[in-house]
Amino acid sequence: MEAILEKTTRSDQKIARALRSRVTEVSAAVAKTNSNTIPLRIAGYKQPFEIPKSAMTLLFTILDNMADGNSFALFLSDNNAEISTQQGADLLGVSRPHLVSLLEKGEIPFHKVGTHRRIQLKDLIAYDKKIKKNRTDKLDFLADQAQELNLGY
After folding, report:
1. C-alpha pair distances (Å), 103 with each of 26, 123, 126
2. CA dist 39 to 26, 79, 124, Å?
3. Which of 5, 104, 119, 108 shows the shortest CA–CA distance to 62?
4. How confident is the model at residue 91 (pLDDT cuts 50, 70, 90)?
5. Is the dihedral of CA 11, 14, 18, 24 positive or negative?
6. How confident is the model at residue 100 (pLDDT cuts 50, 70, 90)?
7. Contacts (Cβ under 8 Å, ≥6 apart) of 7
8. CA distance 54 to 60
9. Where does the pLDDT of residue 32 fall: very low under 50, low under 70, confident under 90, or very high at 90 and above?
10. What's the predicted TM-score (pTM) here?
11. What percent of the chain has pLDDT over 90?
């Protein structure tokens, strides 16, 4: 597994902030596209080239985070990449003991290599997506409830 870590500079942040409104507009248009590819035109090149829609979405996410001044990490791996509990905890933004607790409860599949736990990266990502969806669903429910009860927010 290879990791690319980028610290957002003030210059990058300024450029990304200036692009934010246009990126938001284009991002919405890309999301509505039924195609799995997006034509991309580069100044100086005559022919546009097709890039995967998911790559364009990733670019927009990176730019949005840069505009906020956030640094980011990109992990490149095959589908069978395994990570340690500390790496997994860092990716989820939780403590290692908390992640170990989730593993022992069966929330995330893992296996042991000697006495060390190993997690497949794809399982950790699937868990993260599941938790984020669950969190979003609950927040949407609470927001709907607040609207129905006219709580003023």
Report:
1. 40, 11, 14
2. 12, 27, 32
3. 5
4. confident
5. positive
6. very high
7. 71
8. 10
9. confident
10. 0.60
11. 47
Which residue in 66, 62, 90 sits closest to 1, CA to CA?
90
Which residue, chain included where needed, has tokens 């979405």?
57
Is the CB of residue 38 less than 8 Å from the CB of residue 50?
yes
SS3 2: strand
52 bridge partner residues: 37
Backbone angles phi, psi at 82, to 5 degrees: -115, 145
- When pLDDT is averaged across residues 15-29 and rounded to a whole number, the result is 89
The terminus-to-terminus CA distance of the chain in angstroms comes to 44
Q: What token pair was written down for 124?
A: 């950790």
> Pick from 137, 133, 127: which is nearest to 91 by CA?
127
For residue 139, the tally of other CB atoms under 10 A from its CB is 10
**Do the Cβ atoms of 8 and 65 come closer than 8 Å?**
yes
Reply yes or no on whether the pLDDT at 1 is more than 90: no
Which two three-digit tokens encode residue 81? 């990449």
- Mean pLDDT score of the chain: 89
